[in-house]
Fold this sequence. Notes:
Distance between the termini: 37 Å
Number of strands: 8
Strand order of the largest sheet: 2-1-3-4-5
CATH topology of the largest domain: Rossmann fold
Low-confidence stretches: 219-225
CATH class of the largest domain: Alpha Beta
Helix content: 25-40%
Amino acid sequence: MKKTICLHNVSIAESWLPSRFKVAARTRTSIELSQALARGSAHVLIVDLDTPHAMEAVGIARSAETRIGIVGVTAATDPMRIVEALRAGCHQISVAPLDRADLLSAIKRALDESPKSVDPTHVVAVMGVIGGAGATTLASFLAADVAQLSEQRVLLIDLDLEFGNLARFWDAAPNHTFCDLAYADEIDSTLVEKAAVELASGIYIIARPPSIEDASASRATPFAA
C-alpha cells in the first residue's frame, strides 16, 4: 500500500520519490491544506518553513490528522527557526536546497516517529466448526494478505491446543509455544517476540503446545482462561 504525501508550498516531482510513495495533494494556503487533509488521510506532510504562516500549517496538520508525519523544509541557518518548527510539531527537518537522499531519510524518520506506530492492534478470530474445515488455511492466507497490504507485522496464534497444525502448515519448527506465554508470570512484548517464530513477509506465528498433556495443563492457567 502506497504512503501518501501532501506537499505544502514545496515543489517536488513525484518521480523524485520511490514507488511506494504517492503525492496526494499540493497546497499553497491554509484553507487548501485543511481541505486536502479533510478529504483523506495523508501519511506525510512536507511543508516549506520559509513561507508565511508555515507554523500555522504545521498546527493544522497536527489538529486535523494526529497520525501524520511532518517534515519541515528550510534554507534558514538560524537554530531558533528549527527549534520553533520542532516545537510546533515537525518530526524532521530537511535543509534546502533539497538533497533526495536526505529528504527520503527525513520522510522515513517522520513516519517512524509519528503516533501511527502505536495504532490499536486489530484481532481477528478464525474458528472451524469441525476438524479439517480449513480454519488454518483461511487464517494463514488472511494473515499473508493483511501483512502485504498494510506493510505491518501480523501475528498468528494457534489456539487449537490439541489438534492445531499451524506450525506444520508453515513448515516451521518453533522452540517456544503458547505454553511459554500461558505459564509466564508477566507477559510483555519481549516474551511474545521470543515465543513467536518469524516467517517471510512480516508474518509471525505462536504454535500450540507439542503434546496434549501440555495443552491440558495450559488450560488451567489464568492466561488461558
